[in-house]
Amino acid sequence: MDIKVLSSVPKGNVYISGAKNATIPLLCASILAKGRVLLRNVPRISDVYDICNILRHLECRVAFKGHTMLIDNTNLKYKPLLLDECRRIRGSYYFIGSFLTLFSKCEIWLPGGCKIGSRPIDAHLKAFIDLGYQYKIEEDILTIYKAKTISKAGISLIKKSVGASINAVLAALCLDECVIENTLFEPEGLEALDFLRKIGFNIVLDKDRVTYKKNPIAFRLIKHNIIPDRMEAMTYAVLGLLNGDLTIRRVDTAALKVPLEILREAGFNISYTASEIIAKKSYGKNIYIKTGIYPGFPTDLQSIFGVLTLKSLGTSKIEECIFNDRMQIYYDLRESGVDCVIENNSCEISGVASFRAREYVACDLRHGAALLLLAIYSGEPVIIRNFDFVLRGYDDILNKMKSIGVKIQII
Ligand code: EPU
Fold first, then answer.
1. Which residues line ligand 1 (CB under 6 A)?
2. pLDDT exceeds cutoff 90 at 218
3. Which of 30, 99, 175, 342 has CB atoms 3.0–4.6 Å from 106's, for a disulfide?
């Protein structure tokens, strides 16, 4: 899908939806619940639709009305996960952990997702091996099978990884006891642990160490509310600072301490309470951003803040330390006339210079969102191609933008 963004001054209230990166593992973990799962505040994004199709393929019943989803696992069946949806998105790999616990095997396409670097899954695979499995990869199909039966395990992840931490926990839930060290849980991953505890799994997290002890799981209805999406909230906040006057509601600002403090210290016109952010058009001092694991600066906000450097006086510096190919926005800025010096995964940008927006092509979800902000700020009509990437992760973005006065035409 291609869009044309017309010059606008966004004003008003934006209500933040449920977090993409919390919803995806939860949906994949939902098959571990014996019975039904009721999820509220589920974002209507294409990654969620893809996971729902995978659940239906497994003969789960999924009813999705508004932002509430009811999943019924009564007829759940083992099936190979060789659907296009599995290779289109990244989060489908959380089905592997759930499958190993339920069926001791899994056959699935290697995960897809945004192309933001090499994104190996070696830490996941090593954890599965440590839990008694073996695997083979042939023509992009990953097959995992049980090599030995173990009832207890003590493993340490070879990489601090959000995905591997959740997947290792999901796969360990069939053991009697397990300790997993070197884990990494961001707020969205912590929510996955809370959800698993609601199902009845006895999971304790102490710093970066997870301990699990088996106990009987009862049949019952599990109810769960998804936490607000911190990336969506900050995207709208940056839009307000660039060119508008926005009140962002239903946010958990405690999960955004580092990015919010950077903006406040730089002198941007931003204020916030526990659940609300007010962001108004303003200039700030130059910023320095180095992405890191939580509670560090989130990589998912790096390109969004990259656009904000256009309103930062002086030279700002951005360093990407999580993914090795997530700098596309700076090449776009450079081609639009902004003074950007890009070196590997870092970039220095001289702010407050004039630039000439052109036609852009979104390469991934956050890059697409950053392009949208750039287009709205540019003051001239801008075409963005491949906008579908943005629909993977921003709930109802076209209507939300319309409600704050941003004019977008679908071409
Ligand atoms: N890594 C490995 N080996 C592994 C796993 C990861 O080397 O086995 C590396 C990755 O290549 C990367 C780093 O470790 O360089 C961090 O990867 P991690 O596993 O922590 O991230 P992820 O699970 O692939 C999730 C989110 C991302 C988000 C990151 C970091 C989902 C579906 N994806 O990715 O979300 O950027 O955590 O917070 O939850 C997005 O929303 O735009 C997005 C990309």
1. 20-21, 24, 90-91, 114, 117-124, 159, 161-164, 186, 299-300, 322-323, 365-366, 393
2. no
3. 99
